[in-house]
Automatic annotation (TrEMBL):
It comes from Letharia columbiana. Signal peptide: none annotated. It comes from the Eukaryota. This is Ketosynthase family 3 (KS3) domain-containing protein. Residues 1-127 form the Ketosynthase family 3 (KS3) domain. Transmembrane segments: none annotated. One of its GO terms (biological process) is fatty acid biosynthetic process. PROSITE patterns: KS3_2 (PS52004). One of its GO terms (molecular function) is fatty acid synthase activity. Gene3D superfamilies: 3.30.70.3290, 3.40.47.10, Malonyl-CoA ACP transacylase, ACP-binding, Malonyl-Coenzyme A Acyl Carrier Protein, domain 2.
Amino acid sequence: MHGTGTQAGDAVEMKPVLDVFAPGNRGPEHSLHLGSVKANVGHAESGSGVTSLIKVLKMMEENEIPPHCGIKTKINHNFPTDFKVRNVKIALEPTDWRRPEHGKRKRTVFLNNFSAAGGNTALLMEDAPSVFPMDHLDPRSTHLVAVSGKSKLSIQKNIETLAAFLNGNPELSLPFLAYTSTARRMHHSHRVIVSGHDLRSTKDALQGLGPSEDLKSIPIPAKVPKVNFVFTGQGALYASLARQLFDHISSFGASIQRFDRIAQSQGFPSFVPLIDGSRGGLQEVGPVVSQVGTVCVQMALAQLWISWGVYPSTVIGHSLGEYAALHTAGVVSASDAIFLAGIRAQVLEERCNIGTHAMLAVKASLSSLSNYVNRQSYEVACINGPNETVLSGTISGIDLLSNILTAQNIKSIKLDVPFAFHSS
């Protein structure tokens, strides 16, 4: 409570607070404790609000509600008389106030404060999320640790200091160190970053950085550098696609779940089994699941990069990747991208036979393959680069061509896809 310290003012403050937080008969599990810092320090003027906040935070830190020291005899006769019925208490002795175990409930605090100019300020606070225990198993095999300094000498000293600290603290959590050094530090223009799978490899990497003369300053660019996002087609598909991101990065998982709900609302099957590993292999998922899943994973990846502050200046997509690129560029909504990919896959299932034709990615130019490209046997599906060509044809014809090219020392790979995409 702000507690003006007057009979009338305290009663006026008390009534609405109790009407909101303790309006009627409440059980023992719903107690409301009242207090004020004014009895401890007196009138703090412009510092009264922050003084109250400090007291509340110390109460949460010490897991205790201190006794209200200002009550010597009776409380204000203008206060409500049904404190006991409402389970409202004013601590007259130190009261245990511990955070509930297992994180199922939280301690909640309401802080009330008035200003001399008539302004009212209120803060509603609660316990922060529980931190991971020190023995929490981080799923990542490698972690990044960053060090920076304002000059070559300072960064060299900071590297030496951190290496010595790691020597003296062999039980330190590497995931915690990585998070603190990257996400919780302001970095200067002289900076380095090392990776390691444990403290020893991280320390070795720090000590192997060489003299400070080799560490160049990284100035802040005058303008944001251009970044291109490139979205792939179905050839990059595999079982348990992006599973670690789905399991361990909440924002990515939330995007996937949202896209999956959209897909199911449009009548398509869930594509989550493609990601979480509940389907054994690609043979167990149909074209709709695999193609919608491919598009949605890439849309979620783009959103993840953007959430990290990496914005694309250009997007480009190949095959199914064009839908993800269009969505990321703001041309189509996520719902439209999913609908286009899903309907396209359904039409493929209805109009084409699975397992009759195949695709062959060849590491050669189109001109060098001109002898094989004709209407009767093979046709060009994709020209991915000066020496990257994809041909389509019947399965038997593709197998034959693969053997012929291998005999000529031309690398090729038969793609694990159900149709000869981008061909008649």
